[in-house]
């Protein structure tokens, strides 16, 4: 039997959870990948996504406060477009996180292995250990998760700010030419990759009921987080490109580790290990907390297997936590066995995530149409997400398959419930 629900997230923890969700593995993996896609013009992509964060985060937070449900974005979409669309978005998010946490783990472990010259096996062992740590924290409850996010986000923010400040004097204009060797297409392709770095604004929608004072703290923590994250990401991209440490997009480049080593004067290996552990655990912690609550809400609403509608005595949807641990462990196993690279695997959750954002932002347009501010923030967010989508078309087979599975499940569930009702009526 689960304990009574006791909200535990404070304002400061809310900021930390936001930053833990958004300041994730993107700062490790994306500087090299985006420069390879767009050249120095990748800074434009980073700036565009940073600006998009303002209307996007505001829109999500506004509607999350209206409904205050563990279903988060799924509930938002359901209220706009009906039960089936809400279920689809929930399923997209579930599959996204079922693969995405493995991406975070492999990314971080790859950098640690590169720094200390460890082998292929060590990468996947460390990735698995990241998942284990995140699972243990999630099972301990939201209070433990909030405290961990506060610690991790504070340390990573301090390290990144120091790195940016001490790197500024080494920026050279020559590193920004030629500025856009791949043209507009390169900037668009970089935007798709950078979307991975800015995923996270939606995750807090599932945690709003966990705030002690949501009406006071959710929007405040949203605005502070948007400003901090946008500034850090854009300035970090600027100094990474400007100092010529963006690498070539390969794991061995570890551009952030090189940049921090030069700026802070410590060994690149130590820097890599510390920053990787912090950002990976922070991201995994937030996403496991939010996605497990989404799974619980979907099961509660009858659009996901009832098995997930269970909580531990710590008020944790423990079955969902175990589910994500197992699915991501299986993803690691597949990647290990078939040598699937991170820059290929990352496009699976990114494609699903972009689709989730498109549907959710258009749902926000409908729900906030009579609100002058909400109308324009949601419309701007929706149009930008829609503009990025064509650059991810190569992986659209993934949401097609997920859509088919969701629709089949809903039809099977509906037929089963109808049969049960008929049988009861016959007995009566």
TrEMBL record:
It comes from the Bacteria. One of its GO terms (cellular component) is plasma membrane. Keywords: Cell membrane, Membrane, Transmembrane, Transmembrane helix. InterPro entries: AA/rel_permease1, APC_superfamily. The keyword Transmembrane helix applies. It is a multi-pass membrane protein. The keyword Membrane applies. The chain crosses the membrane at residues 12-31, 43-65, 86-116, 122-141, 148-167, 179-201, 222-243, 263-288, 320-339, 345-369, 381-410. It is found in: Cell membrane. GO terms for molecular function: transmembrane transporter activity. This is Amino acid permease. It comes from Tumebacillus flagellatus.
């Amino acid at each position: 039997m689960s304990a009574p629900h006791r909200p535990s997230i404070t304002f400061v923890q809310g900021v930390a959870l936001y930053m833990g969700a958004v300041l994730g593995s993107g700062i490790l993996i994306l500087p090299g990948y985006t420069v390879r896609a767009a050249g120095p013009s990748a800074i434009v992509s980073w700036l565009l996504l940073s600006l998009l964060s303002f209307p996007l985060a505001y829109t999500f937070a506004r509607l999350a406060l209206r409904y205050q449900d563990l279903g988060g974005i799924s509930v938002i979409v359901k209220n706009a477009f009906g039960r089936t669309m809400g279920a689809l978005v929930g399923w997209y998010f579930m599959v996204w996180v079922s693969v995405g946490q493995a991406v975070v783990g492999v990314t971080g472990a790859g950098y640690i292995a590169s720094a200390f010259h460890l082998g292929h096996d060590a990468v996947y062992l460390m990735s698995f250990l990241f998942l284990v740590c995140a699972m243990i924290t999630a099972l301990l409850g939201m209070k433990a998760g909030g405290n961990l996010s506060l610690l991790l986000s504070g340390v990573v923010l301090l390290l990144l700010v120091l790195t940016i400040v001490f790197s500024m004097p080494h920026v050279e204009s020559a590193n920004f030419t030629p500025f856009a060797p791949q043209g507009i297409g390169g900037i668009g392709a970089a935007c798709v990759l950078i979307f991975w770095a800015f995923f996270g604004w939606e995750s807090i929608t599932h945690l709003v009921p966990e705030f002690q004072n949501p009406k006071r703290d959710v929007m405040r923590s949203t605005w502070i987080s948007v400003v901090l994250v946008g500034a850090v990401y854009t300035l970090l991209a600027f100094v990474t490109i400007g100092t010529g440490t963006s690498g070539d997009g390969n794991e061995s480049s570890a551009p952030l580790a090189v940049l921090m080593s030069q700026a802070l004067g410590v060994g690149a290996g130590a820097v890599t290990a510390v920053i990787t552990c912090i950002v990976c655990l922070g991201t995994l912690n937030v996403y496991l907390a939010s996605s497990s609550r989404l799974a619980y809400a979907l099961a509660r609403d009858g659009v996901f297997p009832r098995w997930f509608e269970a909580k531990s005595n710590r008020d944790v949807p423990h079955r969902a936590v175990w589910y994500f641990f197992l699915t991501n462990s299986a993803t690691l196993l597949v990647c290990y066995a078939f040598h699937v690279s991170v820059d290929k695997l990352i496009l699976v959750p990114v494609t699903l995530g972009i689709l989730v954002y498109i549907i959710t932002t258009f749902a926000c347009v409908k729900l906030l149409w009579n609100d002058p501010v909400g109308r324009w923030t949601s419309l701007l967010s929706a149009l930008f997400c829609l503009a990025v989508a064509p650059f991810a078309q190569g992986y659209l087979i993934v949401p097609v398959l997920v859509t088919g599975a969701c629709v089949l499940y809903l039809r099977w569930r509906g037929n089963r419930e109808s049969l049960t009702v008929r049988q009861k009526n016959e007995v009566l």
